[in-house]
Q: What sequence folds into this?
């Protein structure tokens, strides 16, 4: 009996060892693939030097953490954008990965993208101006400004726009090995930003752009369904938020808020000012303010261009909401309201 028991334990140990090695090989393969696409080793502390020459002069890099001293950044961090209660059950990335299925692990980090040469991590959530933000992140990753800032070529602008929604165009947090992810989230050189939105307008935007246009469904809800039917269907998923499409999912369950301490929580409602502040702190204002025009009638500024996803939901709230629907949305997405400082009050 002892011999059989010992043999069984050896077999179990061997299987676990093979699984462990296979997982490490897969992670290493993913990392090598990412680095080969970007030519930027993720753990290279001097990667930002490749972007340090602006307009033929050295950019100000006297302190890699000087962004934290920027006045507008300090103001943003003091505002009522409190996600502390989300970290009540704060966990490490490694424990999150080992305790969860791969699908659950990925779901927690949807939207989180890094740009190594700017030491920037930004969470770009669906329905939170993510199309424009991902265009910006592709440009920051790929544009060569070592010889100064020049107006981007039209073909480059078109490429950034088209490829911004392609996952392979970005370095996604959920693809990073635990060791490199830990380096990103603990190194003070990295500025970590999440962009959130008022749940009232986000829910309506999801309905108008995804449901009414027939791009997505939800349960029995389709393009012919009313906004009230859509909200009622959302309520059914309150206890299983990760089973719902990310366009309709609670924001607190994405971005990895339970594992990442974000330095700044920006808001779509104040994104123009917030993004200018972030860009100034990290020396990429040129990429926010100019270079996006494809023709004479196009805006040259990032936030002025159209993406085809705009719904102007913030101006249509009174057309779709009743007080009863507003109460349902608040109760359904209460954690989002509390975490990001959005008021419950809904004035019809």
A:
């Amino acid at each position: 009996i002892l011999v059989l028991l010992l043999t069984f334990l050896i077999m179990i140990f061997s299987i676990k060892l093979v699984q462990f090695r296979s997982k490490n090989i897969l992670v290493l393969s993913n990392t090598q693939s990412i680095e080969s696409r970007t030519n930027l080793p993720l753990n290279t502390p001097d990667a930002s030097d490749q972007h340090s020459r602006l307009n033929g002069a050295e950019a100000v890099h006297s302190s890699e953490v000087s962004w934290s001293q920027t006045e507008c950044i300090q103001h943003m961090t003091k505002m009522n954008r409190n996600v502390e209660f989300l970290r009540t059950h704060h966990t490490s990335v490694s424990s999150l990965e080992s305790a969860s299925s791969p699908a659950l692990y990925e779901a927690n980090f949807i939207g989180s993208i890094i740009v190594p040469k700017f030491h920037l991590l930004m969470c770009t959530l669906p329905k939170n101006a993510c199309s424009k933000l991902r265009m910006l992140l592709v440009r920051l990753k790929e544009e060569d400004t070592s010889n100064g800032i020049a107006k981007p070529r039209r073909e480059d602008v078109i490429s950034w726009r088209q490829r911004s929604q392609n996952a392979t165009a970005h370095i996604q947090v959920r693809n990073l090995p635990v060791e490199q992810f830990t380096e990103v989230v603990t190194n003070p050189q990295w500025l970590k930003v999440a962009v959130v939105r008022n749940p009232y307008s986000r829910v309506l935007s999801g309905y108008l752009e995804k449901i009414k246009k027939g791009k997505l469904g939800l349960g029995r809800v389709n393009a012919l369904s009313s906004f009230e039917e859509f909200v009622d269907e959302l309520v059914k998923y309150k206890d299983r938020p990760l089973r719902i499409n990310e366009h309709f999912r609670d924001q607190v369950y994405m971005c990895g808020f339970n594992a990442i301490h974000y330095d700044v929580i920006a808001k779509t409602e104040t994104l123009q000012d917030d993004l200018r502040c972030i860009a100034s702190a990290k020396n990429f204002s040129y990429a926010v303010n100019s270079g996006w025009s494809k023709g004479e009638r196009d805006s040259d500024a990032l936030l002025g261009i159209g993406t085809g996803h705009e719904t102007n939901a913030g101006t249509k709230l009174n057309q779709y909401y009743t007080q009863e629907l507003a109460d349902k949305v608040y109760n359904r997405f209460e954690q989002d309201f509390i975490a990001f400082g959005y008021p419950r009050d809904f004035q019809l």
About this structure: Residues 15-63 have pLDDT under 50 and may be disordered. Strands lie at 53-54, 57-58, 112-115, 120-124, 171-172, 191-196, 264-267. Residues 39-197+268-309 form one domain. The chain has 14 helices and seven strands.
